[in-house]
Write a structure and sequence with these properties.
Layout: H1 3-7, H2 18-21, H3 27-32, H4 48-62, H5 66-78, E1 84-85, E2 99-100, H6 103-114, E3 118-119, E4 122-123, H7 127-133, E5 163-165, E6 169-174, E7 178-183, E8 188-192, H8 199-210, H9 223-236, H10 247-252, E9 256-259, E10 268-273, E11 278-285, E12 288-296, E13 300-304, E14 321-331, E15 334-341, E16 347-358, E17 361-372, E18 376-387
Parallel strand pairs: 12-14
Antiparallel strand pairs: 1-2, 3-4, 5-6, 6-7, 7-8, 9-10, 9-18, 10-11, 11-12, 13-14, 14-15, 15-16, 16-17, 17-18
Length: 390
Amino acid sequence: MTVEHLLKMATGMNTDPLFGARSSKNWPKTFLSSAVENKPGSVFKYNNMATFMLSAIVQKATGEKLAAYLKPRLFDPLGITNYSWDETPEGYTFGAIGLKLLSHDMAKFGQLLLQKGLWKGKQLVPSAWVEAATSFQIQGNAPENPTPREFNDWEQGYGYQFWRGRCNSYRADGLGGQFIIVLPEKDAVVVLTAAAANTQKELDLVWKHLVPAMYDKALPENKQALSGLNNRIEGLSAPRPVQMAPDMAKKISGKTIQVAQNEVGITGLKIHFDDRDNMKIELYHGDEKSEIKADLGDWERSQTKLKSLASPPVVNTGALIKVASMYDWYNDSSLTISLRFVEESIREENLILRFEEVGSEIKVNIEHKNYVEFLGVQSRVMEGKIALRD
């Protein structure tokens, strides 16, 4: 098995060893211990661990992690400073997934490819390599995609870590519909970020709407059309809901909700409301506390130690995770809090709290919903209570 076989997903393996590697402390050994049922190079099989092995090989050969190796050679020349890349338990750059970039920086990478590796007069990547990497090297496939071959963007061929696509395009293709699409014939780069379950439909929108609208010359000014577009955009805006906080908000604000033992690991929480309808949530996982801010009917960004409500805070790393949160009252006694972890593409979590005042305490029914595009909704129910009087 060669590096080229890894590059074009032709390891000869019938399965991707990634899931087996997650419980291992030696990912290269897990990959190299996996069964190779076919002659390497003979058949395409998408394999995340093949891409990981490329990262591990760079680290072995250079003594630098892939992310560090690329910094002076790619990220710095492109002016990409706001990025991070997940690592495996033993300290390799993941390679296959986990690279977090701004959309604008994704477009820079696409433009670099469009220009055959040339950036501001300097050849960052050999043009021959870009040509080879983005050309047809092997017939790709995606068995889960039933779209007929001529309309299927996973049946147009595969290069070296790049998919070929319709309209003589090629693309970098990320989980949940993160795309850098390069269209050489249109001298264009299209970047999409999404949380899509059906990414073929996402690409179909590009071929149906964007590509036909691309012209070789600028269109003449059309003031009437521009005015119509601006009116259309204004009409699409949604006003912030105006809603009075119910009496229940005053009763629970700042009080500790004691949560019974549960599989999520939340031991308690506090909800604070201010006079401007802003909310601050304090979540406790044992002795660890995390804070998240939310706004009424609108997204409020904050930073937290939580990667998920269902896992304890990440401690002792100094890293904070970006989250956008909002809340709404269903009625006078039911509150929903929605959280989206900004650097994750496919996951949304919700807490639904239902309050019932009984004597000197408020009983709280807490439903935790974890929605992942490809897996659906996982729901857990917890019980809690608030002591109204000491």
